[in-house]
Design goal:
This protein has about 300 residues and is of the alpha/beta class. The protein folds into two domains: about 15-175, P-loop containing nucleotide triphosphate hydrolases (Rossmann fold, 3-Layer(aba) Sandwich); about 195-300, GMP Synthetase, Chain A, domain 3. The protein has helices at about 25-35, 80-90, 110-120, 140-150, 170-175, 195-210, 245-250, 255-275, 295; strands at about 15-20, 55-60, 60-70, 95-100, 125-130, 155-160, 220-230, 235-240, 280-285. Strands 2-3-1-4-5-6 form a six-stranded mixed β-sheet, with helices on one face. It has a three-stranded mixed β-sheet with strand order 7-8-9. It is globular and about 55 Å long. The N and C termini lie far apart (about 55 Å).
């Protein structure tokens, strides 16, 4: 960053940066690493992120508002169409774009199609190759970088490991250098725009993603039915909705073992994140084709979420 003249206040920058990429590239892991706090759930399954998530990084020289987006895909269902609407919206009025790609994966047709989406944006884009810690020889990344640059004119390229926090200091510096001068929009301790109610549902869904096999993860939606704060603890009653009876049996498990394990893990992480005792009462209900139901689709995003059951 440019040096200041003696006696002048230091240059302060701020701006909005959207994170894009195909499913399972590690966008949410990168967001959490850049912000320095968990603001988005992660799992080793594609399409973990269903809505745009805001995370804020505050440094002495500036403040960055990151927008994490769902993975770029061809939408085939109502829920996927809703997710891609969020992706397209995150292209507008941004100061910078980060396109995240898996450094261990070959460049394929789906990557070429995903990059076409960036062409409609006015902001410059940085290519971030994630999972560099899994690449044995760094030189092998050069042909991959060349393939990406043949498809889109990236301003810079940064190999990083979001999970191992490798290369992130250089990436943060490059981001700040490309932002315009601006005010600090949020207090220094502000890390996300998501209310605790929504974070709680996402933490429960994260545990479902990690504990259940392929039939359940993308068919589950979690809603908070009751939220009661007392001086001693916060009492949460939540329901996990699935589409079929078989999925409900899997989620409950033998004698309730699965749902108990999911609830315990979610409660323990909520207590760490919210810094208070949590009582979590978790239920499971079947709602056929909820992914095609507008009322339930509104619950994907806290900005439009509805807590009531429309039955």
């Amino acid at each position: 960053m440019t040096e200041q003249e003696p006696g002048n206040p230091p240059r302060h920058v701020s701006g909005f940066v959207s994170i894009f990429g195909r499913p399972n590239a590690g966008k949410s892991t990168l967001l959490n690493a850049l912000v320095g706090s968990k603001v988005a759930i992660t799992a080793e399954k594609p399409q973990t992120t269903r809505t745009s998530i805001q995370g804020v990084m505050t440094a002495p020289e500036g403040q960055v508002i990151f927008i994490d987006t769902p993975g770029i895909m061809k939408p085939g269902t109502s829920i996927q169409k809703r997710m891609m609407e969020g992706v397209r919206a995150a292209l507008d009025e941004r100061d910078l774009l980060l396109y995240l790609a898996d450094a261990t994966a070959p460049f394929v047709k789906a990557d070429r199609e995903a990059l076409r989406l960036l062409e409609r944006a006015d902001a410059p884009a940085i290519l971030v190759l994630n999972k560099r810690d899994l690449v044995k020889t760094p030189a092998t990344l050069l042909p991959l970088i060349d393939q990406y640059r043949q498809q889109f004119e990236f301003a810079e390229v940064f190999p990083v490991s979001a999970l191992r926090a490798q290369g992130l200091d250089e990436l943060k510096k490059a981001i700040l250098e490309r932002l315009p001068e601006g005010p600090q929009y949020f207090p220094a301790d502000h890390v996300t725009d998501q209310p605790e109610r929504f974070l709680a549902t996402e933490l429960i869904r994260e545990k479902v993603l990690r504990e259940t096999h392929e039939e359940v993860p993308h068919s589950v939606l979690v809603l908070v039915d009751q939220w009661e704060e007392t001086p001693r603890l916060t009492r949460i009653v939540a329901t996990a909705y699935v589409e079929r009876d078989g999925q409900k049996r899997i989620l409950i498990g033998s004698r309730g073992s699965m749902i108990k394990r999911i609830g315990t893990q979610a409660r323990e992480e909520m207590e760490l994140l919210f810094d208070r005792r949590i009582y979590l009462d978790l239920h499971v209900k079947v709602r056929p084709r909820w992914r095609e139901n507008p009322t339930f689709l509104n619950a994907l995003d806290w900005r439009t979420m509805r807590g009531q059951d429309d039955a």
